[in-house]
Amino acid sequence: MNASATAHRILDWAIDPVGAPPTGPLLDVAALAEPSLHLLAALGMLAQASAARSHAGAPPLGDGGPVGLGTVLIAAAAGGRMQRGVAERILGAVPPMRAVPSDWAEAVVRHGLCGTLLRAAGWPGGADDQLVAASPLTAVLHRPVTGQGTAVLPAVSALLRRPRGDSVLVAALCEPSADAAVLIWRSAVLEHLRGEHLELLLDVYTTARLRHGELWDARIAWAAKNLRRAGLPDDTALATLRYWAPLARVHRDQRPQTLAGRIVAGTLRAADPIPRPRPDRSTDQITGRVYLRPADYMTVLRLVERYGLLPVEDLL
């Protein structure tokens, strides 16, 4: 078994990621430059699976261009991680991509591998920043290289200009996570959306409740229980609540427009018409989102306020 076979095993695993990523030797590394037809077929299957899983469509994000061998090199390095020195040299040979990609098809397949590795239960870590550095879409949809979040925000805007880019971003941002760094990055992206794409921000939270409501409820309950304990607060517990802070700010800003908010503020006059929410998926008003019910989000919004997370923070 050589480096090509190791890369093939990782690609096969990433197509249907069950269990921990496999490992293998890194013999005959030079053969990676001339991959076999079987290895290229596996790369093509991963490209299709990555586009489907990420909701990127076909062609992925509107890019029908070719996919290079960078993903094969990443796969070999990931599978040969037990040979750390050789694996790092292979990662170093991966052709770099710009932070704002021009070859989006390549970006999708690299994220299909790197993002899957980083979320895998059996992934040992240690090379996370190197994987993110090789995959600009992973920097957007998972989290950036440590300390480089500000540099990645233009890629968020570029993604939204691509066909189906909004669907890709919503599908990634709505997922629960137990990784504090991932949650902090997502809250920073959501705060960015609050300023420029408010409708999309509400799409994210609506989808989070519809697709992952039970998981989010469990994570929020865990965070609340953890933060009630004596001692220093847990970073992941705080990050879980910070994820919901942009929605809390929208709720605060829009509340004077609701019936309850106007009663509290004393601005509702007897002759005023009673405002009625207009159910509309594209609306930028919380009250117009029929699938985003107050019962689904008010508990966590109160926790956000209780723990002083409502003011805008510089998370990057």
From TrEMBL:
<dbReference type="InterPro" id="IPR045480">
    <property type="entry name" value="fvmX1"/>
</dbReference>
<dbReference type="Pfam" id="PF19998">
    <property type="entry name" value="fvmX1"/>
</dbReference>
<feature type="domain" description="FtsH ternary system">
    <location>
        <begin position="20"/>
        <end position="262"/>
    </location>
</feature>
<protein>
    <recommendedName>
        <fullName>FtsH ternary system domain-containing protein</fullName>
    </recommendedName>
</protein>
